[in-house]
Amino acid sequence: MNSISDVWQSVLSRLQEQLSETTIRTWFDEVDVVTMEDSAFVLHCSNSFKKSTIETRFMKHIKAALKDIFSSDLEVKILNDEQLAAYHGVAPDQPGSLLDSDAFTFETYVVGPQNKLAYAAARAVADKPAENFNPLFIYGDSGLGKTHLLYAIAHQVKRKREDLRIVYIKGDDFTNELIASIREGSNAEFREKYRQAGILLVDDIQFIAGKKQTQEEFFHTFNTLYESGRQIVLTSDRPPREMTQLEDRLQSRFVSGLMVDVAPPDFETRLAIIKNKAAMLGVKLPDEIYGYIAENVTANVRQIEGTLNKLLAYRDLLGDQVDEQSVGRAVRDMLQKSNEYIPSPSVIISYICKYFSVEEDVLRGQRRGRNEVNARQIAMYLIRRMTNLSLNDIGKEFGDRDHTTVLHSLDKVEKQMRTDPAFAEVVKEITTNINAKR
Ligand SMILES: Nc1ncnc2c1ncn2[C@@H]1O[C@H](COP(=O)(O)OP(=O)(O)OP(=O)(O)O)[C@@H](O)[C@H]1O
Q1: Is the CB of 257 under 6 A from ligand 1?
Q2: pTM value?
């Protein structure tokens, strides 16, 4: 063997003895070999989905193949783009390799009613930085595509405006870097890096709240950029008014441009996302399977990706027998692994009964007074959102209603949440209170 590439080829051919060709093609086509250190073999994979799958499922195969070749145990590391950039000594403030990867672009972002405003605003900012919406503040729960939009902006700006220096940072890393710069006496460099950005993208800005020195520094960074007409884009898991520990002067600046939220995708958008992700992975599953996942994994896109990942793992193990049972298992595994609290339907129903002062048998029954109908529809919606019950099973909780009635309720609640902010607040408050019961 002449080079580490030969070693890698040899590992792959050993893997072929245990894994199907499709499996190897699906998971390893974006892997390249970086180096071999004394006791470690170092690979790189841009696709985080594939990287984590390889780490959880195929690490033992790779290590065994290396042991077979070298007769000794080697560690195996898989670097993501940032780690590879660090390895090659590229400045980490430029998410260069992520920009070069086609995974997080506007083209791969599936647009639905819940994120179309955020998508349009992000596109507008990427096309014409600092012209219309400055700052752009994108907020929403975890796993709904905020980081994806930031990368997409960066990707687009990089293509169209080579002159603009893009600086991307996570809120907590901003704090860490600031502290390190103070310790090392390199505060001037730190300031220069952020205050001279052509466009500043800060992910998870909520982490600066409550940190006095970080807020002070960020305040000045913000002002410098804003006053010199440079674009700032911020993402957060909540709107500024809910960041109770955020200084007023920052709060007022964050809301001074455009604020847009991303909400969990509806059924059609989930379905489109699943199909897209599967296509990106080069797999095609029966339509019923896509539908089943879209129906059952409702909270966020990260969970959808995780479910697909699990399902492909089962498919590799079971051959082509992907049926509803294995999909059901993948969905359950995913929801359990995500460590999310899953309240029972009774917990949800009982809380809603208290909230709307409705007796439980009335809520579960047929009475059609306005208050009862409203409470019942919200209960169905939350059971769907917070548990992994199917539409049929939800119907059973409410006097054996059929799944189309349940679907109609979900639609109604989703629509009203979009058009009536006060109603959306009520649903959110109920969700938070049920979650607090864990
Ligand atoms: N609308 C979408 N279309 C395609 N992929 C999506 C969409 N929304 C989210 N994703 C994918 O879901 C995964 C999680 O998204 P992302 O990391 O952007 O979430 P986030 O909102 O930034 O979460 P967090 O707040 O936890 O950082 C990513 O792989 C992303 O590509």
Answers
A1: no
A2: 0.63
The domain total for the chain is 4
Tokens 């079971």 map to which residue?
318
pLDDT, averaged across the chain: 85
Cβ of 416 closer than 6 Å to ligand 1, yes or no, is no
What is the b/e burial string over 284-298, where b = at least 16 CB atoms within 10 angstroms of the residue's CB? ebeeebbebbbbbbb
Ligand 1 pocket test: pick from 270, 301, 307 the residue with the most ligand atoms within 8 Å of its Cβ.
301
- Separation of alpha carbons 385 and 394, rounded Å: 11
Give residue 381's pLDDT: 93
- Pick from 404, 355, 403: nearest CA to 379: 355
Domain encompassing residue 322? 267-337
Q: Point out the least confidently predicted range of 2-11, 341-350, 404-413, 424-433.
A: 2-11
Looking at 68, 87, 106, the residue that finishes a domain is 87
* Residues 326 and 333 sit within 8 Å (Cβ to Cβ): no
User: How far from the centroid of its chain's Cα atoms is residue 85's Cα?
Assistant: 22
Which amino acid is located at 225 in the chain? L
At 96 the pLDDT is 47
Residue 283 carries which side chain, given as an amino acid letter?
Answer: V
Residue 246 CB coordination number (10 Å): 21
Q: Whose CA is nearest to atom 7 of ligand 1?
A: 145
- Alpha-carbon separation of residue 207 from 122, 171, 364 (angstroms): 22, 5, 42
